[in-house]
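[agent] plan:
  1. take the single chain provided in the ticket
  2. run structure prediction with default settings
  3. attach structure tokens to the ticket
  4. add a short note for the reviewer (M.T.)
[agent] executing step 1
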Amino acid sequence: MFELTGTKTPLVLIPGLLCDALLWAHQIGALSDVADCWVPNPVGTASIRDMAATVLETSPFEKFALAGLSMGGYVALEIMRQAPSRVRKLALLDTSARPDSLEQTRRRHALVEVSRGGKFTEVVRLLLPALVNRDKSCTPEIVGTVWAMARNVGQEAFYRQEAAIIGRIDSRPHLGAIDCPTVIICGRQDAITPPEVHEELTRGIRGADLTVLEDCGHLSTMEQPEEVSAALRSWLAI
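[agent] step 2 finished; step 3 output follows
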């Protein structure tokens, strides 16, 4: 591991379910003058705990700012438990501190069964209405990127990711221990982790700031890329 010299901040960006570095493409480009970005590929394990450990083991940075979206937020919260001294700043996007509900777990198992039945592409089609704000963000470019990321991640990794998400712990009792500068960002129309879930995160983390983006669903980095990049730039400047 190494510590960067100069003015750029080491920044770890953790993607969500069935997502890869394309999720953060705008932020990587827009923040290139102030941040040295690294996107891990947390697809090799079936637990959030092990995903976090893998990120910590493979990160090129000893200390870093940390951002995670959706599943990436679950991993980021686990990193805060495993190695809080390594995280300088925390950004949580379209995520939750809650464990899976019984209904969420049921839906995840149903999607896995669809995929195991030879219909992995059907899983992506079923997920799309919840991932993006249909009125504003269901553009060919965004939809095409969602499909590309799903193909890149693949079916077997999808099974491991869903198992990890189902098995995650309740992070709410641990929020009070977070003491680094924290920003929380979500879409007003996020159907998976709605604004009230982010208000809960904001109340739980001392000094956290909440930004709610209008006309935006679950994939805020893609649906409102300029606004997310601007919010992260301000956070990095703290």
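[agent] step 4 note for reviewer: Residues 1 and 70 are 27 Å apart (CA to CA).
[agent] ticket updated
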